[in-house]
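Notes from hallway chat w/ T.B., transcribed later so I don't forget. T.B. wanted the structure written out for a chain they're using in a teaching module, and asked if we could keep both sequence and C-alpha cells in one place. Agreed to drop them here.
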Amino acid sequence: MGIDLTGAPSIPYCSAIGISVAGLLAPVTFEHPALGSFQLEIGFSPMHLARNLLGRDFLDLIQIGFREHRLEFYVLPCP
C-alpha cells in the first residue's frame, strides 16, 4: 500500500477475549465512487490477524443496510 509506518504512534487494541494487539496509526484517504472521499486514521497491525473490522470512525460516516426480501446489501453516505 506504500504506507510508511516508521515512527507511527502505537495504540493497543483489545479483543473481547482479552487478547491485546498493538496498532500502528497512519492517516489514510478512503475513496469510493458513490460515497466520496474520507480522511481516516487507521491502525495497522505489524502481526498477522485472521479477521479485521473497520473502525467506528468510518462507520460513523456511512450507513450500511440489508434488504432481505430483495437480496440487497447497500452502503450509503450518512445524511
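Follow-up for T.B.: The radius of gyration is 15 Å. Might be a good example for the class.
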